Amino acid sequence: MSDNRGASIDFYFDGRVVTGRSGQSVAVALWDAGIRALRRSPVDGAPRAMFCAIGICQECVVTIDGVRRPSCTAVVQPGMRVLSAPELSTGLGR
Ligand code: FES
Questions:
Q1: Predicted confidence (pLDDT) per residue in 18-67, tens digit
Q2: How far is the CA of 55 from the centre of ligand 1 (A)?
Q3: Count of domains forming the chain
Q4: Residue of 9, 36, 69, 74 with fewest CB within 10 Å of its CB?
Q5: Which amino acids bring their CB within 6 angstroms of ligand 1?
């Protein structure tokens, strides 16, 4: 049986190597790797995960190569450095 999932792409999440697939979003690549918590709630510290998967809710915000952005709309790139988002006192967290 052939594998048509796309080429493997290694990137980093909080210093850990994660392998995604060509064309996959960062959020889905992390989900496939068993990583669900992408940030913590600024209210109660609860882990937050992908919700809408279309860039609307901002629940999946992480820091990618120094830029805070939704991981569900960012496509994996070789060597990209993704950090779980520390919550800011203002910004995208809810
Ligand atoms: S899951 Fe809603 S913006 Fe990414």
A1: 999 999 999 999 999 999 999 998 888 899 999 999 999 999 999 999 99
A2: 4
A3: 1
A4: 36
A5: 27, 50-53, 55-60, 70, 72
Handedness of CA 39, 44, 50, 54 (dihedral sign): negative
Atom of ligand 1 nearest to the CA of 60: 4
- Structural domain of 21: 8-84
Q: Does the residue 15 lie in any domain?
A: yes
What is the Å distance from ligand 1's center to 54 Cα? 6
In this prediction, residue 4 has a pLDDT band, given cuts at 50, 70 and 90, of confident
- The 3-state DSSP class for residue 30 equals helix
Residue 37: inside a domain: yes
Q: Are 87 and 40 in contact (CB under 8 A)?
A: yes
What is residue 85's predicted lDDT score, i.e. its pLDDT? 78
pLDDT band at 87 (very low <50, low <70, confident <90, very high): low
Assigned domain for 92 exists: no
Task: Measure 43 CA to ligand 1 centroid, in angstroms.
Answer: 18
CB 27 within 8 A of CB 71: yes
In a domain, 94, yes or no: no
